[in-house]
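Please decode residue identities from the backbone states below.
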């Protein structure tokens, strides 16, 4: 038996995710939850509904999260970390508010949150913090004791996140026909967001300079490309590109789109492309539809061989990274010395989102940050 590990002061971990439909009847109510008050054109919503119906109305995201929960529980048990793990979502059952109520009722008062988004941005960070504030407000009206809620730092540059993706890119390269393999380019992809949201992502001091969202992705892309060069001896040219744009056409979002990029690479005579979805933690609908279905079909029309590399999903190295992040944060909260683990040029991200980090268009209460109205 290994020595017991201490997560004190924390008494539980909450996996906080997006949620997704689990059958055809769930699709429309799910999309209504996602888009409430966000001004997404009806046409786009109908189109996105079709993506889900193509897969029987089932998003893979909940199954992916169940697998991650299993991996976390196994890793914690194997390492003597006695920390219960719960799961709640923003847009579908199990809903965050219900999970938080269950946690408080079970006696938990210091909760650490792992969001299934590795980078800074309104959608990937502050919006989850707003969801936490909303859930705490509900518990407050119910007269329940309020737990203290902290959120784990962005883990984009943690080796346990980067290494499985590096391995995925190597596997995809190996899977390409030999005559096009060495000439293949790598297209690192992430969710497009409005350029204004990108510019204001991360702490205020980096705003206006492109923002943390793009910088963090570029750092991960460079890390993976360097590791691939070291392991194959081949320098694969790469670019960060975007997918899953959803706003009105007159509002600028991050570009180029993956499909336009494939077309441009084909025209430039590039023999093959590996699409590496570094912006996502698991193979959910954005990956299955936008890359595996739409972009792969476009590549087929172009006669361009493509492969899509794996996300981290429930990789044991990612589960171990989460354990390390928890222990790091627990030590920091207890005033014990810690050296946060991070690769690349940016260093470890902040533990507590400072005031003004990833602002919303219309300010709303957000928990687990310096501007939280809760303790
Ligand atoms: C940065 C980012 C991530 C990565 C970080 C993270 O993982 O959090 C992410 C993840 C996800 N996005 C997802 C689904 C959707 N996102 C939408 C809409 C939007 N996403 C945005 C951004 C992001 N989204 C934005 C700026 C919008 C516009 C409206 C708004 O400002 O809110 C819409 C509405 C329809 C449409 O696509 O237009 C849907 C259905 C799913 C679930 C997939 C599944 O079911 O398997 C996941 C994991
Ligand atoms: Fe999204």
């Amino acid at each position: 038996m290994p020595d017991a590990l201490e997560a004190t002061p924390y008494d539980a971990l909450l996996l906080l995710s997006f949620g997704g439909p689990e059958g055809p009847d769930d699709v429309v109510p799910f999309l209504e939850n996602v888009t409430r008050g966000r001004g997404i054109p009806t046409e786009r919503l109908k189109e996105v509904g079709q993506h889900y119906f193509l897969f029987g109305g089932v998003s893979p995201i909940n199954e992916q999260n169940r697998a991650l929960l299993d991996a976390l529980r196994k890793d914690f048990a194997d390492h003597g970390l006695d920390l219960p793990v719960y799961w709640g979502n923003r847009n579908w059952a199990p809903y965050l508010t219900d999970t938080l109520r269950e946690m408080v009722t079970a006696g938990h008062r210091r909760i650490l949150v792992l969001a299934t988004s590795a980078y800074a941005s309104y959608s990937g960070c502050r919006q989850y913090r707003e969801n936490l504030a909303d859930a705490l407000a509900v518990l407050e009206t119910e007269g329940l004791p309020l737990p203290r809620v902290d959120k784990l730092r962005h883990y984009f540059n943690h080796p346990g996140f980067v290494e499985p993706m590096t391995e995925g890119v190597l596997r995809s390269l190996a899977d390409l026909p030999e005559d096009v393999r060495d000439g293949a380019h790598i297209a690192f992809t992430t969710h497009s967001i409005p350029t204004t949201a990108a510019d204001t992502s991360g702490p205020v001091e980096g705003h206006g300079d492109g923002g943390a969202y793009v910088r963090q992705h570029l750092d991960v892309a460079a890390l993976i490309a360097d590791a691939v060069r070291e392991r194959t001896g081949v320098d694969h040219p790469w670019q960060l590109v975007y997918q899953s744009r959803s706003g009105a056409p007159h509002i600028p979002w991050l570009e180029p789109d993956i499909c336009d990029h494939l077309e441009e690479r084909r025209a430039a005579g590039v023999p093959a492309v590996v699409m590496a979805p570094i912006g996502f933690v698991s193979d959910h609908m954005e990956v299955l539809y936008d890359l595996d279905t739409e972009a792969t079909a476009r590549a087929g029309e172009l006669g361009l061989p493509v492969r899509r590399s794996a996300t981290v999903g429930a990789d044991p190295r990612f589960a171990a990274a989460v354990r390390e992040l928890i222990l790091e944060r627990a030590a920091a909260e207890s005033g014990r010395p810690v050296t946060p683990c991070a690769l690349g040029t940016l260093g470890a991200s902040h533990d507590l989102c400072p005031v003004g980090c990833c602002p919303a268009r219309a300010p709303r209460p957000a928990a687990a940050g310096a501007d939280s109205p809760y303790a």
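Observation: The longest strand covers residues 185-191.
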